[in-house]
Amino acid sequence: MATYNGWLICNPPTIPVTASGTPIAPKSVEWSGSDIVGVSTNPFQETQQIYNWNQAWLEASFAYPPMRYAPAQAWIAWLMSLQGTANVFQLGDPLQAPINPLAVGGLTAASGGQTGNVIVTAGGGHQSVGDWIQIGWHLHKITAISGPSFTIWPPIRESPTAGQGIATTGCVGIWRLKDNNRKWKCQPNKLFDLSFEVREAL
Predict the structure, then answer these.
(1) End-to-end distance of the chain based on CA atoms, in angstroms?
(2) Which of 45, 92, 111, 166 has the fewest CB atoms within 10 Å, i.e. is most exposed?
(3) What pTM does this model have?
C-alpha cells in the first residue's frame, strides 16, 4: 500500500449514496489555522517583541450527513483502520470550488527549490485570493496574488521542481486524526451520525 513519510495511507471510502452515484460529502467543514508565534511583553513599557518561527499547520473538523447502515459501516471501518493517529489519509474541501468559475488548471511552479510563503507560478489562470491549491501532498490557501506570484498559507512544505504541477481543483491535503479516539452515533431511526477532527500530517 502507498505510504507518506513511512506512514500508511488509508484513504476514506467513496461509497455513493445519491441517485446520481455521487460519494458522500460532508454537511460541514470547520477549518482552523495555527501559527507558532511567540510574544515577549516588556512589563514596564508594554512594548512587545515578536518571534515568528514561520511554522504553521491546518486542522479541520468534518461532519457528515446521517448515513444508512452500509455506507456508515464502511466509514466506521475506515476510522478503525487509521489506528488512531498512526496512519494518514488524503482529503480535500468538497464544499469549496475555485471562487472564479473561469479558473483553469495547468498551473505549475515556475522554478525549483522555492520555499516560504510565496510561490512563483506559470500557466493556469483566474485563480483568486481564498482559493485552495495543492503543492505536493499539502493544501495551501492563496492569501494574495501579484502577477504570477502567489502568497500562500501555510508555507511551502515540499519545495517543488521547475514545472511541477500545482493542483487548482480537486485539491487534497494529507492528514491524520487529531487524537486516538473515534466516535459515532446510531439514532433510533437506524441512521448513523459521524464526525471526526483532523490535523495536517507533517
Answers:
(1) 19
(2) 45
(3) 0.89
> Residues 50, 55, 58, 59: is their CA dihedral positive or negative?
negative
The x, y and z cell numbers of residue 14, run together, are: 467513496
pLDDT digits (tens, 9 = 90+) for 91-141: 999 888 889 988 888 999 999 999 999 999 999 889 999 999 999 999 999
φ, ψ of residue 75 in degrees (nearest 5): -70, -40
What cell numbers appear for 28 in the block? Answer: 460541514
**Residue 190 zone, left/alpha/beta (φ > 0; ψ -120 to 50; rest):** left
Please give the share of the chain, as a percent, with pLDDT higher than 90: 74
The full set of domains in the chain, from first to last, is 1-95+174-202 (3.30.200), 98-168 (2.40.30.290)
The partner residues of 121 in beta bridges, in order of sequence, read 109
Contact 160, 118 (CB under 8 A): no
| Cα(158)–Cα(113) distance, integer angstroms | 9
Q: Are 62 and 55 in contact (CB under 8 A)?
A: no
Contact 70, 83 (CB under 8 A): no
Q: Which of 71, 81, 70, 91 is nearest to 173 (CA)?
A: 91
Residue 79: CB atoms within 10 A of its CB come to 17
Q: Which among 29, 32, 57, 70 has a CA at the least distance from the CA of 195?
A: 29
